[in-house]
Amino acid sequence: MTKILMTSVRDDEQPAIKEFMKNHNDVEIETTPQLINEAVDLTADVDGLVIQQRTPVAPDVYAKLRANGIKQLATRTAGVDMVDVAAARQNGLIVTNVPAYSPRSVAEHALMQIFRLLRKSYRFDTQVANNDYRWFSDEQALEIHTATIGIIGVGRIGGTLAKLLKALGATVLGFDTKPRDEMKNIVEYTTKEDLLRRSDVVTLHVDLNPTSEGLLTAKDFQLMKPTAGLVNASRGPVVKTADLITALKNGTIAAAALDTVEGEGPVFQTDRRKTGLADVPQIQELHDMDNVILTPHIAFFTNLAVKNMVDISLNDVLLILNGKPSPHEIK
Fold first, then answer.
1. Does residue 108 carry a catalytic annotation?
2. What is the pLDDT of residues 220-278, one digit of tens each?
């Protein structure tokens, strides 16, 4: 019997985990809601490990995993920025991720937020909450087929979004370090600067890495239209938050829809109804702005995506434990 530990498990993942065990009679899966940092001792009695982190894996965890005989570390996420891959390798751990659990899930979330920005729903949400049912000339919306949408990062997710936007008649601009020939009938590839100048909404779909961290700063917001909106459904550090706040306050850009922000770890997936956000002033500031739409990193959160994240990560564990290569190994 192969035993696998899954950490940070939510209730909504349990049906997929139970189905996996039903289809694999020789696999036993133990689950815990704890992060691996708190649950590392549980790995002493298992063969494989699947994690999902909101904060970085603690530095001492890698050696503890090696000491407990663990050979791999599967994260059931696309991003691996919470894992020190070099430290994992030094301790003999093969790291895998789930690069394409459901590009459609994040693309559909971004499309929803693009519509909300174009229709200025954030303005009406605030007004109606205050029992103000008027509408004003500067709240006139853009129909999607008259809008220009700029996608930074035209990969799996960005490419899926581009197809949806094209089907709706939008003009789609793209900036990517590796433009794909098969997308050139859908996306007009251009420079980042040109994309920022021309777009009515800019949407971000890049991995977090040294080249994408701080990708949008004050000088970039200065290039955008004062009527433009920003969607970030990638990673928080891709945008310099302090610069974004200034741009939103000064009217440099009109609005932002953020599913991820810098410093989200202590906030997202927590209940702040009593404690508030005083200890995270930048998120507090974004929360209080009437031209910001905040969601707690849930763009991925669909039925298909959750099942794929569970299935793909567990299948990778089994491949590696059986001495076979995983197509999702982080090199």
1. no
2. 999 999 999 999 999 999 999 999 999 999 999 999 999 999 999 999 989 999 999 99
- Spatial separation of the C-alpha atoms in residues 276 and 325, rounded to whole Å: 46
Distance CA 160, CA 142 (A): 22
State whether 185 and 64 are in the same domain. no
CA-to-CA distance for 176 and 190, rounded, in angstroms? 8
**pLDDT band, residue 41 (cuts 50/70/90):** very high
Among candidate residues 143, 117, 273, the one with its CA nearest the CA of residue 125: 117
Q: Please state, as a whole number, how many other Cβ atoms lie within 10 Å of the Cβ of residue 160.
A: 22
Task: Look up the CATH number of the domain holding residue 94.
Answer: 3.40.50.720
Residue 79 has a pLDDT of 87
Q: Which of 64, 30, 10, 17 is nearest to 312 (CA)?
A: 17
- % of the chain at pLDDT higher than 90: 95
Structure confidence at residue 331 (pLDDT): 86
Question: Against a cut of 0.85, is the pTM above it?
Answer: yes
Mean pLDDT score of the chain? 96
Q: Which of 104, 116, 205, 264 is catalytic?
A: 264
Cα–Cα distance list, 154 to 111, 158, 178, 189, 296 (Å): 14, 4, 9, 9, 23
Task: Give 129's contacts (C-beta < 8 A, 6+ positions apart).
Answer: none
pLDDT at 137: 96
> Which pLDDT does position 54 carry in this prediction?
84
> From the candidates 198, 205, 297, 328, which is the catalytic residue?
297
Return d(Cα 80, Cα 53) in angstroms, integer: 9
Check whether residue 75 and residue 115 sit in a common domain: no
Tokens at 80, concatenated: 């691996």
Whether the per-residue pLDDT at 96 is higher than 90: the answer is yes
Provide the domain limits for residue 10.
2-101+303-321
- Residues 311 and 282 reside in one and the same domain: no
Which tokens sit at 271? 């209940």
Catalytic residue among 13, 235, 262, 328: 235
- Is residue 197 part of the annotated active site? The answer reads no
Mark whether 264 is an active-site residue.
yes
Burial class, 301, CB count within 10 angstroms (exposed 0-12 / middle 13-18 / buried 19+):
middle
